[in-house]
Amino acid sequence: MRKKFLSIWQWARQNKAVLITLIILLGVDRLTKRLTLACLENKDVVLAPFLHLTYVQNTGAAFGMMQGGNLILIIVSLLILAYLLKSWQEFCAMGAWVKWGLVLILGGALGNLYDRITLGFVVDFIDLRVWPVFNAADSFITVGGVMLATALLFGKKATTQEEK
């Protein structure tokens, strides 16, 4: 047990920037969702013609899929998080875009998982009127996914060109 703790402690010391970023991402997500719960219930705030703040309790996944599937989504989220953490070293060896893309995905996934476990739903509030309502954690996951896809699709080409 002591050896495992020391291993985790060593990892944390080596990855301070990752941990600080995760704390910031979770803080932004929690703050925006707490403000939504405190201020937006039964209200629709218009910030611009294309941007509204609308409180939605989402018991499903992205784009309204799997409504009512909270338990399944908690299990799937935990499995994905476990896989990402177990494979962290291999992913980080693929480059900075992969590493930081995964940090964004982890931050967003942890934020939404927290909601699912504590509230039984995810708090969504950003309403673009042409897209399903989403939240900051969803944005982190999306940006992280784009970074990950970009690195995986174009990273090898860049490495191959550098080797020439």
List the helices and strands and how they pair.
Blueprint: H1 2-14, H2 16-39, E1 44-48, E2 51-58, H3 70-86, H4 88-92, H5 96-119, E3 122-127, H6 136-163
Describe this structure in words.
The structure is a single chain. The chain is mainly alpha-helical. It has helices at residues 2-14, 16-39, 70-86, 88-92, 96-119, 136-163, and strands at residues 44-48, 51-58, 122-127. The N and C termini lie far apart (47 Å). The model is unreliable at 157-164 (pLDDT under 50).
What is the structure about, briefly put?
With 164 residues, the protein is mainly alpha-helical.
Task: Give me some keywords for this one.
164 residues, mainly alpha, three-stranded antiparallel sheet, 3 strands, disordered C terminus
Q: Report the radius of gyration as a whole number of Å.
A: 18 Å
Helical content class: 55-70%
The total of beta strands comes to: 3
Specify the biggest β-sheet: 3 strands, antiparallel
Structural classification = mainly alpha
Low-pLDDT ranges: 157-164
- Note the gap between the termini: 47 Å
> Strands of the biggest beta sheet: in what spatial order?
1-2-3
**Number of domains in the coordinates?**
1
Name the beta content range.
5-15%
Oligomer: single chain
Helix count?
Answer: 6
Mean pLDDT: 88
Order of helices and strands: HHEEHHHEH
Estimate the global geometry from the Cα principal axes: globular
